[in-house]
Structure formats: C-alpha cells, structure tokens
Amino acid sequence: MSSMNVAGPRGVTYRSRTMRQRIRPAFTLVELLVVIAIIGVLVGLLLPAVQAAREAARAMQCGNNLKQVGLGLHNYASTYNGAFPNNGYSWPGGYPSDYSPLAKILPFLEQAQLQSLIDFDIYMGHPALADLPVGLQEAAGTRVATYECPSDVNATLHSLTMPSGASIQIAGTSYSMNQGSGLDGVFHPGNGVKSDGLCWVGAKVGFRDILDGTSNTIVFAETTIGSGLEVATPTPAMDVRSNRATANTGINATLAEAADAGGFSGIESFISGWSGDRNHYWLRGSVPSGPIINGRLTPNSPVPDMVYGSSKITAARSYHTGFAKVAMADGSVRNVTDSVDRAVWHASWTKQGNEVKTVTSE
Questions:
Q1: Between 20 and 30 A from 239 (CA), which of 16, 202, 219, 231?
Q2: H-type alpha helices, the chain
Q3: What is the pTM of this model?
C-alpha cells in the first residue's frame, strides 16, 4: 500500500494511520548488546544457584543412602543376636574369603534377590592369584543404588582384569564400614587381627561392645569411588578423591606418622604410583578396592589414601563441599567438616576408647 498524505488543520499534513502503524523502530546494535549482557549476567547469577540446589538435593539423597545402610545394619544385628556383619571369614592356608558387610546386609535393603546370587560357601580365593568364581560374577557386577552417592562422579561399573587375563565388570560403593581409627597400627582389614573399630575378618562385634555409646561411634563413612585410571609413576600427583597412592613400602605406623607430621610432603617419597580402583568392589571387603576403611586421615585430607597389598591408610572422602557424611552406630547420619579436630575425629572411630568428645558432641 502506498503512503498517503492527509491535509489537516492550518495546512498541516499527516501520514495516514495505516502508514504510522507500519513504521516500527528497530533495535540498535548498542541496545542489542546491552540486552545480551543483561541476559548473561542473569544466567551467571542463576546457574550457581541451580547447581547449589542440585548438590543440596544430591547430598540429601546421600544422607538417606547412609541412613538406609545404617538401618540395614541394625536389622541385620536384630536377626543375628546383636552381631554386626563382619569382613568374611579366614581360610586355612590362604587369603580370607572376604565377603563384605555390604554383601551381608542386602536383604535388609530390599535386595534379597541380589543376595540370592551370592553363595557365601564359595571360597573367593586370593585376588592376585585366582579369578573371582563364576558363580559370584553376576552379583559382583550389579550396581546397588543405595550404595552410591549421587555426587560421586565415578559411580558406575568398572573393569576388573583377573589373574587369568579375563576381564569382568564390577560395581563399587561410596560407603565403607569402620575398621578402626588406625591409631592402633592395624591397617589390614583381612588378617584377622582385632582393631579398635568394628569390622575385620572374623570379627564378632555387636552393640554390646560399643562402650563409648552408639551415638558416639562411626559405623559407616562416606568415601569416593576410583576413576579406574592407573599411573605407574609418582608424578604427577593425582586427585585424592579418585586415586590412592601406591606405597613403595609396607603400611605401618612410621608411614602414618609421616603423614600426620608432614602432610603430603611427608609421604611423597613413599609413593611409587597411583591406583584408581578405590571402592570398586562392594562384594569383597579385604581386597584393596573393598569397602572397609580406617579413620587415620581426617575427612577429605589432602594426603592421599596409601595402599600396599591389602593394607591401607584411608580417609572419609566426598564430592560435597567441605564435609563428608558418616553414619553413627545409633542410626543417625552426620556431616563432618574437613576442619574437624583430629583427636575428636579419631575418638569417633573407636568403640571402647573412653573419649569425652566425638563428632556428635561438636
């Protein structure tokens, strides 16, 4: 439609209403850039809030998982005359048949069908000498949602290359049972030696043995699943949440004291490489990748977990910011900050230490 001028009063000419409606001013480049900048600022403000809300939800689910694991232990104990699940049983002249406590509480987590795949009479064999028996491989490769923290970035199936060279898929866990404080020098969870904690091969520990009080004693602690990446050299240093340091000497009090005194620099000379299989194996407890932990290192310690054979110095670890979760023997779940006092932390791992302060009292 062509434009049309209309004469108004006193000779003033107006454009027709049709033409006035068709003329629309456009955005200038400056205005467009300002709008884009404002949107960018809003997105920048919104994304951290969304991520924080998602992490809060994941942390809440993690706490619920630990709660369920703790209640599963309570129900197990109610069934077995107050006894806690242990780390398997010794085997004459061989490596212990180390069925983990997590394998034993499955029916109390609505996982009876999964436990039906486990024949506890099968000898598991030495992990460095014998393949996992075929009858246990399906169970070992089954993920259990309750055993995995939603924030754990490596919560997935991982490959296990067995001594024969065959490879199978195994499932891990973000939660480990309390072997002890590590202050008593017991670092191997499978040698049948009693510790100041709750779980080892052949352990016969129950509620009656926790003289410090069930609300003051950790029974399960959060820890992270390994990335699967193996590094055969001490450098570069790896993320301590996804890798453990392989020690070039046996795990003992001297090494632990070096970590206490010097942090990472104190144990750096003892590192020969890095293993990525931490907590890959919920089925087996004594193997290096099994879910048994000591509390020698404080939560999310910058000092890496150290492993030599099946002996370990470990820490509770998580992908939550500034804390790791623990389940107490009374069934409660607590967040323990990375800055927790070392003595208070260690006191929470002992069952008969007679300590006054634990993570519950902080």
A1: 219
A2: 17-22, 29-79, 101-104, 112-115, 134-140, 253-267, 342-347
A3: 0.86
